[in-house]
């Protein structure tokens, strides 16, 4: 498979940020009271992700390792500010509906996960397609969750009446508990059909997720981090000897 196409497919299926990596749960659960909100949040995050990936990939050789995180924050915050101003200027209704969750894209772990794990180590072209794939995957996930919540909670999808007029909306689904219930139901379907998921052990192992199988977990992610942290004193000691 073409490596650029692989980056697109990766974000849609193999490492979908919502259904496989289980990242960015705060906006996922908070804004998906309707399908349109999912579209707005998903596309806003995609724009920030793609722009940040491209900029950081282009300048990756010039970023000192010791200050890479502050640099990433500045780049991401700048892109979020641009997106927020554009939404306020041209799509005020979307900006009002998403509220505080637009500026909170700055701390979205999907953005920093891809910037740190991929864009900072790869070329601009691949980072561009990685950002597009991850962004589209995140957008599709938000639309699915928002559509289910809107359908059950209001009887509509994208504001179009789907359920018969006799249908009594279950308002709980457009309230905070409904987000957890819908996400749990969609995850249960993933597990039922053995689709890649962070909760059934079939998802691709990643530094950004545990990979599921909690019953048999031996704390692999913790062990890896613990080993890395344990090496730090040895490295510092070796540096002092050299000095």
Task: Report what the structure shows.
The structure is a single chain. This protein has one domain (3-192). 63% of the residues lie in helices and 2% in strands. It is built from 9 helices and 2 strands; from the N terminus they run αααααααββαα. Helix 4 (68-90) crosses helix 5 and helix 4 packs across helix 6 (109-117). The longest helix is centred in the middle third of the chain and has 31 residues, at 124-154. It starts with a helix and ends with a helix.
Structural class call reads: mainly alpha
Q: What is the number of beta strands?
A: 2
Tell me the fraction of residues in β-strands, as a range: under 5%
Number of helices, counting only DSSP H or I runs of 4 residues or more:
9
Question: Mean pLDDT, nearest integer?
Answer: 83
SSE order: HHHHHHHEEHH
Global morphology = globular
| Biggest pleated-sheet summary | 2 strands, antiparallel
- The tally of domains stands at 1
End-to-end distance: 49 Å
Percent helix, as a range, is 55-70%
- Spans with pLDDT under 50 lasting ≥5 residues? 203-209, 211-215, 218-232
Taking Cα atoms only, what radius of gyration do you get, to the nearest Å? 20 Å
Q: What topology, given as strand order, has the largest sheet?
A: 1-2
